[in-house]
Write a structure and sequence with these properties.
There is one protein chain. The chain has 162 residues and is an alpha+beta fold. It has a single domain, classed as OB fold (Dihydrolipoamide Acetyltransferase, E2P) (Beta Barrel), CATH 2.40.50. Helix content is 33%, strand content 26%. The chain contains 5 helices and 7 strands; from the N terminus they run αββββαββαβαα. It has a 5-stranded mixed beta barrel. It has a two-stranded antiparallel ribbon with strand order 4-7. α3 runs parallel beside α4. The longest helix has 12 residues. The protein is globular and about 50 Å long. It starts with a helix and ends with a helix.
């Protein structure tokens, strides 16, 4: 019951940026390379977006690989989420760590399957990881014409003929 009250408080105060909370969830679904669904200790399903990264969209080059890699890191596993915000789609924005303490956002960047989302995360560790991964031409960085997801989303209406 206490956990349920904490979650209700979290749900109420997060939109105002007044609260953050760290807790564990069991990952039950992977939407794409930076979004997943988890069950908390009260079996509530919550949707999360990994803070500080932006992975390729599903229909974008490397989108499927990013989703699969995120799944290999966290699907059906317990992770620690440090929730600090909600986005306009209601997803909880969180830093995510594996059971052995690895930073999932950094792991995705190092695999060459996500961009460091500099607009939202100023982390030197993420910046360095992206620079190294780019230099090694790993993952999406092997494509000299790789398009950042935020650019892909802007262009998408043009691609679809709108």
């Amino acid at each position: 019951m206490k956990n349920r009250l904490k979650i209700l408080l979290l749900l109420t105060l997060l939109p105002f940026g007044l609260y953050s909370q760290t807790f564990q969830v069991k990952v039950i679904g992977i939407s794409d390379g930076d979004t997943f669904t988890g069950l908390n200790s009260d079996n509530l399903q919550l949707k999360f977006r990994i803070h500080g990264i932006d992975a390729p969209e599903k229909k974008q080059a490397y989108g499927t690989k990013a989703r699969e890699h995120l799944g290999s890191l966290i699907f059906k596993k317990n992770v620690t989420v440090d929730v600090n915000d909600r986005d306009r789609w209601g997803r909880y924005i969180a830093r995510v760590a594996t059971e052995d303490g690895r930073d999932v956002g950094k792991e995705m960047i190092q695999a060459g399957l996500a961009w460091h989302y500099k607009h939202y995360e100023k982390s030197e560790a993420y910046a360095q990881a992206e620079q190294t991964t780019r230099g090694n031409k790993r993952g999406l960085w092997s494509d000299p014409k790789a398009v950042a997801p935020w650019e892909f989303r802007k262009r998408r209406p043009q691609i679809l003929g709108s």
